[in-house]
Design a protein that fits this description.
The protein is of the alpha+beta class and 335 residues long. It has 2 domains: 4-111 and 266-331, 2-Layer Sandwich (Fructose-1,6-Bisphosphatase, Chain A, domain 1), CATH 3.30.540; 119-260, D-Maltodextrin-Binding Protein, domain 2. The protein is 32% helix and 25% strand. The chain has 10 helices and 13 strands. The protein has helices spanning 4-21, 29-44, 90-95, 139-150, 168-177, 189-194, 211-224, 237-245, 257-260, 321-331, and strands at residues 50-55, 71-72, 79-88, 101-108, 119-125, 158-162, 180-184, 204-210, 227-232, 267-272, 283-285, 288-297, 302-311. The strands form 2 sheets. Strands 1, 2, 3, 4, 10, 11, 12 and 13 form an 8-stranded mixed beta sheet that branches. It is globular, with a radius of gyration of 19 Å.
Length: 335
């Protein structure tokens, strides 16, 4: 893919972030998500790609989500797979917490795993520990390998885990091994990416989260030279059936980074919605907003940070009736 597309994809995540950040702390995660999706879809339609969403947050009958199989872009080459999460951290935005981002990954057609919207068991590490961890290995062994790779003691490692009842045993194993734990309420893409950043305060991500977020995280780690493994974690037979319909023959298969993202020609872009360890959130002022984004290319392993100042009254998208309607509903009136 042409490197000029990288900035176009940042425009897409910026739009989603600008739209959803207006809902920070308002307690309405559905509206925040809807705003992000609508804005992301609108800007995608201006990008010169022929894209198919292979990782999304829902099926076609669950619109307004960007659904699996949806076509995005202007319908011209290059032909690409698109993985999206317009609002990674809906609860985070609704509660005004830290770490929400708008994020996407794009790669040549047929190179991103077509995974259903279900759970995935994951492990993510930085470049130093690449090839040294496995989901099939005991937790303590993985922590020992990461500690050796980083020239640390296990007690100096920080492991990020989603704070969920399903992780009780995992958390106990990490504590018995002696590592530190950072529990997060939502949003595991940011810490997965942060594991590949020296000095980020994150050494490893472990546990079960969303499969779409897993593939997106893998795309970022492919750009950064890190490592990622995932295994689908179905909750019931319905999940198994959905995976089978998407061509997944072995629900217990251990996916390596190279299976999840089969090309180095991958672009990852993210924009902060609320402040987090990875990116600052949207800052609003009179008719303006400032965004903080990053974009990576796997081919060159280049990471760019982009700070942008947006004149909102000159952006048609943010004068759209849909955005105004949301504001009217918050006030208790409809325009």
């Amino acid at each position: 893919m042409e490197r000029e597309l990288a900035l176009e994809f940042v425009r897409v995540t910026e739009a989603a972030a600008l739209a959803s950040a207006r809902w920070m702390g308002r307690g309405n995660k559905e509206a925040a998500d809807d705003a992000a999706v609508s804005a992301m879809r609108a800007v995608f339609d201006t990008v010169q790609i022929d894209g198919i969403v292979v990782i999304g947050e829902g099926e076609m009958d669950e619109a307004p989500m960007l659904y699996i199989g949806e076509r995005v872009g202007m319908g011209v080459p290059p032909l690409v797979d698109v993985a999206v999460d317009p609002l990674e951290g809906t609860n985070i935005v609704a509660k005004g917490l830290t770490g929400a981002i708008a994020v996407l990954a794009v790669a040549p057609r047929g190179t991103l795993l077509h995974a259903p919207d279900m759970y995935m068991d994951k492990i993510a590490v930085g470049p130093e520990a690449r090839g040294r961890v496995s989901l099939d290995a005991p937790v303590k062994d993985n922590l020992k390998e990461v500690a050796r790779a980083l020239d640390k003691q296990i007690c100096e490692l920080t492991v990020v885990v989603l704070d969920r009842p399903r992780h009780q045993e995992l958390i106990e194993e990490i504590r018995r091994a002696g590592a530190r734990i950072k529990l997060i309420t939502d949003g595991d893409v940011s810490p997965a990416v942060a594991a590949a950043y020296p000095g980020s305060g994150v050494d490893i991500l472990m546990g079960v989260g969303g499969a779409p977020e897993g593939v997106i995280s893998a795309a970022a780690l492919r750009c950064l030279g890190g490592d990622f493994q995932g295994r689908l974690w179905p909750e019931d037979e319905e999940d198994v059936e959905r995976a089978t319909k998407m061509g997944i023959k072995d629900i217990n298969h251990l996916y390596t980074l190279d299976e999840l993202v089969q090309s180095e020609d991958v672009i990852f872009a993210a924009t902060g919605i609320t402040d987090g360890d990875l990116l600052k959130g949207v800052r609003y002022s009179a008719h303006r907003a400032r965004t903080y984004s990053l974009v990576m290319r796997g081919v060159s392993r280049t990471v760019r940070y982009i700070e942008a100042l947006h004149q909102l009254d000159r952006k048609p998208l943010f004068r759209d009736n849909t955005i105004k309607l949301y504001e009217g509903e918050v006030r208790g009136t409809k325009e």
